[in-house]
Specification:
The chain is of the alpha/beta class and 367 residues long. It has two domains: 273 residues, Spore Coat Polysaccharide Biosynthesis Protein SpsA, Chain A (Alpha-Beta Complex); 81 residues, no CATH class. The chain contains twelve helices and 15 strands. It has a five-stranded mixed barrel with strand order 5-8-6-7-9. The chain has a four-stranded mixed sheet with strand order 10-12-14-15, with helices on one face. Helix 3 packs across helix 8 and helix 8 runs antiparallel to helix 9. The radius of gyration is 21 Å and the shape is globular. It starts with a strand and ends in a 6-residue tail after the last helix.
Amino acid sequence: MLHALIMAGGSGTRFWPASRRALPKQLLPLADDRTMIRATVDRLSGLVPSERTWLAVGQSLVPAIQAELPEIAARQYIAEPLQRNTAPCIGLAALRMLRDDPEAVMVVMPSDHVIRDTAAFHKAVTLANQLAAKPRSQIVTFGIKPTYPSEGFGYIERGETITPPQGQFKALTAELDVYQVVRFREKPQLEQAKEFVASGKFYWNSGMFVWRADVVVDALREHQPQLLQHLETIAAALDTPAYADVLDREFRAAPSISIDYAVMEHAKGVIVIEAPFDWDDVGSWQSIARLRGSDAAGNTIVGKHLGLDTTDTIVRTDDDHLVVTLGLKNCIVVHTPDATLVADKNDEESIRKLVKLLEERGWEGHL
C-alpha cells in the first residue's frame, strides 16, 4: 500500500522574523490562508489516508503540529531529537512503515512545497506507485521542467524515454513523460545552469521520491550501514519503556547525511517522471510574490499597508498592524509583534546571517 512521509523538520531561517524556532515556516500561512503543512496533508486527500500519513518533525514541534493536524495519530510521528538531515528520518520512517506493512511504498515529500494542481499531482504519484510497487523495483522521482537557470536547485539529467507497463494505468502512461535518470547534479553555477536549461535534458530536482520502504532500507544497508545500524536499534525499541532514551542516544549518534548522498547518488535505474503539476519550493520571501501575485506597482502585500512611491516591494504584517512605506523600491518589509525586518529584496541570503548574529548576541527570544 502507498504511505506518505512528510518531512517537516526545517527551520526556515530565510523567513525570519515570521519564522521562528517555535513557529517555523511549515506552520505559517505563506502561500495562502492555510499553513504549509496543512496544505501538504490536504494535497494527499484521496490518495493516501491519514492512517498511512507519517510526519518527520523535531521533537519540540510535535505538540504544535499535532494541534494543526489532529487527524494524524501520535504513533505516526518520527520525532527527531535534533536535525540530522534527511536520510536518518527517511530510514527510520521506512522501518516503522515496514512493521505495519511489509509491502509498503513510500511517497516522500517536504512540507514546504506548493502544488496547486492536486489532480495532476495524484496522477503522477499514482503512476510512480505502480512503477515502484513491485519487489526490488525502481526508485522514482519527479523532475520539474525549469523555467529559468536557477543556481538554487539541484538538477536531474534525463536519459532515454521509458514506456511503463500499461494495463489499468494505460491512460496515465499516455499522459505522462517518463525517463531514465542519467545522473543527479548538485546546485550549479549560473553559467552551467544556463547550459542545463538550454539543453532541454535537465529538470529541477523536486526532492520528492517514491520507493518501496524495503528498497530504501536495503540501499542504506549497502551504502550507509553505520546509519542503518543506529536506526534499526531505535526501531527495535519501539513500544518499549526504553524507546525515548534509545531514540535520543542512537539518533544523536547517527551520521548527518542527506538522502541524496546516502542513496540517490548510488542508485541504479532511477526513473524520473516529468511533473505535470505546478510547483514552488517556497524557499524565500520572494517566492511569496510568485505565489500571491503583485499589484500594478509590482508590490506584494499581505496585511494592512499604505504606500506612497513604493514599487517592487514585499510587505507582510500581522494582527491588523499598519505598515506605511514611502519611497521604497525592491525591498522586503516584514512586521511581527516583537521584530521588524527591512531588507534589500536582492540580498535575501543575508537574512541567514542576521539569524546567526542574533544567536551570537544571545537574543534567544527573537529566534
